[in-house]
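FIELD: query
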Amino acid sequence: MNIILTEIGYFGPPILFLMLIYLTIERNTKPRNKRIANENTAKHDKMQAYVICTYIILWQTLNYALNETLKHIFQQARPKDIPYINSWDSPPHLGRYGMPSGHAQQVVSEATYIIVAFQNPYSSILSIIVAALTIYQRYIYQKHTAIQLVVGAIVGVFTGGTFYSFISNKL
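FIELD: result
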């Protein structure tokens, strides 16, 4: 369990990001009704999938920038004596500040969007599991305090919901 927890915990954001891209492409490139589908609607749906994916990449970049900005505003240190669990999640790769948790913000943001945008119970449950394992890993391995994780999750719900509203109104 430790290896799985370590890997899913660290790679939770890219796991959900790839899931988000896959779900977007899969939903927008599958014909909705085979009798109605024609070449023009297929091209339009495929183009819409690429546009949404571009917005997703932009959203995740802005989400990361927001997290870094908030960390510099709060300037709250991470817990002391952080254990080394793998080479990519240890100093010097680990930033000084921990408020809010970037991992919690990213996974909750992505999970929020997956839940409200796709309304698929399997995708929703899987995204919640990945988000929960990520947050649990960040806490259990002392990468963040509980409050840093909670604030990251709250910001994540806000950014995920805001992005869903933006995409819903845009397309």
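FIELD: remark
The radius of gyration is 18 Å.
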